[in-house]
Amino acid sequence: MPATLNLDSSLLDMLWVLWAAALVFVMQAGFLCLEAGTTRTKNAINVAMKNVADFAIAVSVFWLVGFGLMFGDSRHGLIGTTLFGWQLEASSHWVITVFIFQAMFCATAATIVSGAVAERMPFLAYTWTALWIALVIYPVFGHWAWGGLLDGAEGWLGALGFVDFAGSTVVHSVGGWVALAAVLCIGPRKGRFNHGKPPNAFPSGNLPLAMLGALFMILGWFGFNGGSTLAVTEQIPSIIANTVLGAVGGILSGMLMGLRTRRYADVMYAINGAIAGLVAVTASAHVISLSAAFGLGAVSGVLMVLTSEWLLSKHIDDAVSAIPAHLVAGVWGTLALPWVADLTLMDSGLSRSAQFGVQLIGVVVCGVWSFGSAWLLFRITRRFLPIRVSPDAEKMGLNLAEHGAKNELNQLLEHMRQHEQQGDMRQRIEADPFTEVGEIAASYNRVTAALESAVGHTRVMLRNLRDGVITWQADGTLTSLNPGAEQLFEVDAKQIIGQPVSQLLSTRSLSPGARHEVKRRCADMQVRYLEVQVSEGASGSASERSGMVRDITERKQLQEQLNRERDLARTTLASIGDGVITCDASGNVTFINAEAKRLTGWTLEEAMDKPIYMVYQLLEEASGQPLNNPARQVLTQLTPVHSTEHCLLVNREHSHTPIQHSASPIRSRSGITLGAVVVFQDVSLTRQLTEQLSYQVSHDNLTDLLNRRAFESALTALLNRDDGHHVLCYLDLDQFKIVNDTCGHLAGDELLRQVALKLKNHVRSSDIAARLGGDEFALLLPDCGIERALTIAEALRCDIEQYRFSWQGHTFGIGVSIGLVELNATQPMQLSQALHASDAACYAAKEAGRNRIHCYQPDDHALLEKHGELQWVQRLQNGLDNDTFRLFAQPITAICADGPGYREILLRLEEQGEIVAPGSFLPAAERYHFMVRIDRWVIRNTLAWLGDQNHHTTLPSYSLWGINLSGASLSDADFCRDLITQVAMANLPHGTLCFEITESTAIAQLSRVSELIATLKEYGCRFALDDFGTGLSSFSYLKQLPVDYLKIDGNFIRNVHQDPIDRAMVEAIHAVGKALGIETIAECVETQSTLDTLHHMGINYAQGFLLGRPEPLTHMAGNRIKVMPR
Questions:
Q1: 606: buried, middle or exposed (CB in 10 Å: 19+, 13-18, 0-12)?
Q2: At what angle do helices 9-38 and 207-226 cross, to 10 degrees?
Q3: Are residues 448 and 463 in the same domain?
Q4: 674: helix, strand or coil
Q5: Closest Cα partner for 885 from 926, 938, 930, 945?
Q6: With contact defined as beta carbons under 8 Å apart, do 468 and 482 qualify?
Q7: Where is the PAC domain (predicted)?
Q8: H-type helices in 350-407, by residue range?
């Protein structure tokens, strides 16, 4: 299992392409329905079987050879030479994804031929043809046009600039050319064309099924075109929209052309119009507008109809119009592309006319290659394999001739013919009473039995029969009705006899040897369903027929209700994601749904009537011992069973799947137990996600070490032990900030990962390593003495000291300060005590010179000093919790500037009535990560105070207020977002706020700081660089930061009136600032001579005790506010 599950863009791309492949597979079902529904019923199974077979053959051959020829490394742009079936095993997931997607395309190209040659091409000859399409014809041309999809080396045709986005030519024209060669070589179906007469239209077996197939194909085309992006891109919606509009345009134009040419809306023209429209837009779906897609589809529908009529006039028999819909529409869509496409989206670098020339070359090459190869294939094949069925087989139908697919009706007719030939009416036909044909056979048997009885006896029976019986002559004249018929038809026999039988029954229901249903509306306006069974007989020399009429209204209603319930139950069980197995009262399997089939490995046919314990076997997960079968428990106890723990399901291949299950009895309305149902779920993914989430919660994402929370849990457990000696090590990297600030966070992250690897290399399997945060790590050494711990720590310290980190041409050396604390039962510690002690020991190691080891001793003076600093943690926390921080302001006075200057907001801490200066607590706040929370407090309270002052128009004359931002806060993305939100909500006048950032912070986070400055300046904020001049790279980065003020570091200001070097530095900073339009502020101005020197130099502003000391903000609000802000 992977350590993490990142849903990155590559996984989304693969998921989209696989989903698109599934949709393209739906097109295979669409082709099957379309071709089976269009052809005659006696050939429908043969056509469907060809579709199934060509899919299997095409995918197999494409896997073995075709994919490699098409997408392998190109040789001279002619064929691929890698990625054959035996090489795909080692390919990447993306290559496998592309193979699945392209295999569906290959199967589509092959199956186009099956419809064109339907009802006359032998099954073996067709599968032979499909093999060569997938093996050579399609892959070779596909390489010419689409080669280089994986390795970048294009085929020769693609290199010319030929564009065929999803296969108008590569897929559909190739299949269409092969279909044209096939129908020319094989010839038309028998009886299709008669000399001097219009073409004979053969009846379609099931046009609704054909229309359903067309809808399946439209659905599949969403994946055909949409998936051809091979990535989740912004183009997908427009591509799918173009696909839909192309189909719609083709349907409408096909229907209109059908009305024009045949005076009725021809179903096949509408269906093939949709296909033609889809094919036409396939070449350019990614670069055309919606209106262009509709136009392409509409024109393709017209071309399809015209081509179909032309083929008929030339006696070329295309059974499903595959050639007009795929070949002609593909040529049209490919050639029209340069004139309707947005050339800026194509990026081919060709003009429209030049692009048309390339497209024309592609179409011609496709025709010569595909048609020529197919023509040669059929010429060679017919020498050793028939490519057309015999006349008898064609007459009989290929269902029976090629597949031996008999049905009950065939058998019934054969028995009836035998009776007719033998003349022995004593024989009876075996009839299944639960089928329609069985009912016909039963009626036939009843008729023969009645003919053997005396006429008088028959009349008595007919008179007393509740069902209706009517007889009529061959010309349709009624000869008799029994009382049952009079009641059912609500007529008087005396008045109706001699009238045409059509007054009672429609002509459709008068055909003999079949059962028909008649819907009648009675005199009371209620609907009644009648079942009519007609048989032939003889009365003297006049042929006579009789009909048995039965009222089936109640049965019809009950049957419809049962059908609805059955369909609902089947659909529900097939669709749910849980496995479902049912068994009868004996424990034998009666049903398995699709999910149960997947988990157990048993199909319904294989598992039917098998004992459920053979199909559904369970093991206890912990011990591996067999568990009682829940269905058997239910049948024994007659109560439901629910699993409380996960168990393992053993499938047919003896692999194990963790599941949860429940079982319940199936009872009749009377409470009799009929069987049991077991419902179970695969919990593998749930378990994997749970384990992954648990791992992520307890581990650091960057270093893969334990995080602070998990480490503290482990430390707590160790502290609770009352035996053994253990050691806690606290590690803090030295010189890490140099790497992080110089090379950026990426370099810092990589350095932390390298250090983590060294930690793992130096610890035992029982030791625990963790990253506590930043550049701080910890080691927990259970059952380890202090001497052994010192050895481990020293080896680790030396290893890190000798390590040289290289990044983009720079090499850095680092060190590590390590604090050790011995843990044992004789000197028990709490978690906080152990952590503080180790932190203090590490601090002592740093204070002693860094890159060394220090062992914690309770009386260590260095640690006592550190403990004093640690006390600030509680004091700072109290300050935040109890709101004891205070805001002060110090003026910044204009000395050579037009503005009035501004005030800088400063922070103090009030404890027991005393004000604590920031120099006492800010170092501890930075070390113990309080700065972000403190900055949030300052921002929130300052903006609240300024907003209140602005609302009451009592702001002092200083209209600009400076607020300091720490480096830790600027590194926090959440803080930056909240800062922008709060400034926007405060809605202060522009020029009210000025944020001060230290020079080192700005340079270390140049990109983030620049972005923040740009955003806040939109709200009228200004920015100042604090402590400017302390860094060597100050001037090189200055022009990249859009700041308003430079606050010159006080170290240059204090002696500027007497130190020429300081004076030169200040003059240089002021000159650069002036050149960039940035005003300068001198800090730490404490003497008049310093101020005079600065004034003479032209420094704009000054700040220091000479000009004003910090004072509380509450003193600046008059008498109105005495507490705000806090």
A1: middle
A2: 160
A3: no
A4: strand
A5: 938
A6: yes
A7: 514-564
A8: 352-381, 391-396, 398-403
266 in a structural domain: yes
Please, which residues bridge with residue 1081 across strands?
A: 1047, 1101
Backbone angles phi, psi at 1013, to 5 degrees: -60, -45
- What pLDDT does 637 receive? 83
pLDDT score for 408: 66
Which backbone phi and psi does 12 adopt, to 5 degrees?
-60, -40
Question: What secondary structure does DSSP assign to 194-222, as a single string?
Answer: -TTSPPP-PPPS-HHHHHHHHHHHHHHHH
Number of domains making up the chain = 6
3-state DSSP call for residue 189? Answer: coil
665 and 711 together in one domain = no
Q: What is the 3-state secondary structure (H, E, C) of 784-808?
A: CCHHHHHHHHHHHHHHHHHCEEEEC
Q: Are 1028 and 1078 in contact (CB under 8 A)?
A: no
Q: Which of 364, 381, 398 delimits the end of a domain?
A: 381
Report angle CA 461, 464, 467 to the nearest 5 degrees: 95
For tokens 């005030």, name the residue.
Answer: 903
Give a yes or no: residue 838 inside a domain: yes
8 Å CB contact between 1048 and 1082 = yes
pLDDT for 459 equals 55
CA-only gyration radius of the chain, Å:
45
Residue 762 lies in a domain: yes
H-assigned helices in 283-351: 290-313, 322, 329-340, 343-346
* C-alpha to C-alpha distance for 844 and 856, rounded to whole angstroms: 9
Q: Report the pLDDT value the prediction gives residue 543, as an integer from 0 to 100.
A: 65
Extract the tokens encoding 308: 């179909």
User: Residue 664 is part of a domain; what is its CATH number?
Assistant: 3.30.450.20
- State in Å, rounded, how far the first CA of the chain is from the last one: 52
Angstrom distance (rounded) from CA 875 to CA 84: 71
Question: Tokens 């384990």 identify what position?
Answer: 691
Q: What is the CATH number of the domain that holds 832?
A: 3.30.70.270
Is residue 706 classed as helix, strand or coil in its secondary structure?
Answer: strand
Could you give the CA distance from residue 1102 to residue 1054 in angstroms, rounded to a whole number? 12
For residues 236 and 222, state if they share a domain.
yes
- Dist. CA 637–CA 98, nearest whole Å: 53
**Does any domain span residue 913?**
no
Q: Which residues of the chain have pLDDT under 50?
A: 1-6, 454-456, 539-541, 861, 864, 1032, 1119-1126
Q: Which of 481, 518, 476, 468 is nearest to 500 (CA)?
A: 476
- 462 shares its domain with 448: no
Residues 6+ apart with CB under 8 A from 618: 626, 627, 628, 629, 630, 647, 648, 649, 650, 661
Whether residue 488 is found in the same domain as residue 607: no
| Residue 506 CA from chain centroid, whole number | 55
Instruction: State the Cα–Cα distance between residues 899 and 914, nearest whole angstrom.
Output: 35
- Let me know how long the chain is: 1126
State the Cα–Cα distance between residues 113 and 130, nearest whole angstrom: 8
Whole-angstrom Cα distance, residue 496 to residue 1126? 107
d(CA 349, CA 149): 19
> CATH number for the domain including 362?
1.10.3430.10
The secondary element (H helix, E strand) that includes residue 534 is strand 527-539
Pairing of strands 1022-1028, 1045-1048: parallel
Last residue of a domain, one of 517, 538, 561: 561
Asked whether residue 590 falls in the same domain as residue 714, the answer is no
126 backbone dihedrals φ, ψ, rounded to 5°:
-65, -45
Residues 234 and 114 in one domain: yes
- 900: domain CATH number? 3.20.20.450
For residues 538 and 656, membership in a common domain is answered with no
CA distance 1039 to 743: 20
Q: Do the Cβ atoms of 612 and 633 come closer than 8 Å?
A: no
H/E run at residue 837:
helix 831-847
For the chain, helix (H) and strand (E) counts, in that order, are: 45, 31
